[in-house]
Amino acid sequence: MPGNDKHSGGDSSTKAAIVPNAHTEASAASASWAIVGVHDGRDLDAAHIRTLLGQATVVLGGQRQLDMLSHVADELSDALVTQPWPSPLVPALPELIDRYRGQQVVVLASGDPNYHGIASTLRRHGVNAHVYPAPSSASLACSELGWALDSTPVVSLMSADINSIGLAIEQSPRVLVLGRDSSTPATVASYLHHLSSDSIDPANITITALSNLGTPQRAITRGDATAPPVADNLHILAIDTTTARPATSTLTPGLPDEAFESDGQLTKQDIRAITLGALAPQPGETLWDVGGGSGSIAIEWQRAQSRNPGALRGLKQRAWCFESNAERRARIERNAAHLGVPLSILGAAPDCFCDASDPDVIFIGGGLEASFEQAWLRLKPGGRIVINAVTVQSEQHLFALQARYGGSMHRFEVSNEKQIGSFTALKPALPITQWRATKNISS
User: Tell me: the pLDDT tens digits for 396-412?
Assistant: First the structure.
């Protein structure tokens, strides 16, 4: 158990992801909470912060921040309780909020608590605290580098999958990455090296590690994707691919088929674009892609959702891809890494449905007969389902489902050019029948 005096220790190294677990009764009790952003003890020198700390009965924070209280020790009450964050943090928050209900609580946090910080986490749990921010690490990094903060994507590896870096640098030549610990530069360099193609020299992808910004321990080291820089635990990475010229692909669904490694089990480009339009990705929704093949539907779902403003800042949309073939699962994983999206890849449907969270949207591209009933049971009320069929038998099954659940039927026929000697003809592909339905709220 954490200590209850100003000298108590504890593990503050873990930051948990934001989860939607509202603790609504805490709102009134937390009206006297304040969150103060700091980089080092000098940030506590302001008169209003000293007054705030002098009136506090409880101070919460990571041990590094709590150690800064020695800078203002004369201002603090002898009865002050200092509480290091428990680890893991989020599951312990409701009890912690209840424990200090009605008290004057000050939270010390790194930099700007509203930026990938504790303020959003506490709000999710009903704590309405006033925030006193310091400059964010991204703001300090851009000031050091001469980059424009408003046009520089930021990926936080505290909450985002490393694949998100690939998508970010695909859309912007300069990206900031909030690291987990001192091992992050090597991990990121390895990922970028793997991501490089024959036309991109990883030595031309520069990586700058900016450690302990805003403190006297500030340090800046430089490297590249072949020789990463050294960083302290508290750092932000700046990735510059300007001279590497990485390829840029659209975030609008319908990537070329060549963008995916495939054994032929692939929803082709035109049908894929139509299917993603029917799936209609919305921020924060969860997709099940049943019969993943090459993973193209799930991957394009994730890429489409990345256009929402919160995506690169950790807003959690999710895609579960179900594929029975182990070789194809490995191929899906490679495609997801190459195209810069996080993806949860599981085995055969419906056996592995129990390992996935309930979906908002379902796409079934294979295994319809075996998977539909259990998939429909797990689909959230108001959720959407889209199923593509090629064979006559599957098409008949779709009409039976429409008769039972409603929805609409569509047929798509696409022709593509084919060379016949010195001439060109249009060769039709197999037609696709598609059923779209929404699950009734009362279902």
Answer: 999 999 999 999 999 99
* Residues 6+ positions from 110 with CB-CB distance below 8 Å: 37, 38, 39, 62, 64, 65, 117, 137, 234
Bridge partners, residue 438, by sequence = 384
Taking the complete model, does pTM exceed 0.85, yes or no?
A: no
Tokens of 17: 């992801």
What is the spatial order of strands in the sheet that 235-240 belongs to? 154-156, 174-178, 235-240, 206-211, 219-224
Q: Tell me which H or E stretch contains 386.
A: strand 384-389
Q: What is the mean pLDDT of residues 43-71?
A: 93
Q: pLDDT of 182-213, one tens digit each?
A: 999 999 999 998 877 655 778 889 999 999 99
Joined tokens for residue 75:
């201002």
Contact yes or no for 203/226 (Cβ under 8 A): yes
Q: What is the dihedral of CA 153, 159, 161, 165, to 10 degrees?
A: 10
Lowest mean pLDDT segment, chosen from 196-205, 222-231, 233-242, 251-260: 196-205
The dihedral sign for the CA sequence 266, 271, 277, 279? negative
CB crowding 86-107: b at 16 or more within 10 Å, else e: beebbeebbebbeebeeebbbb
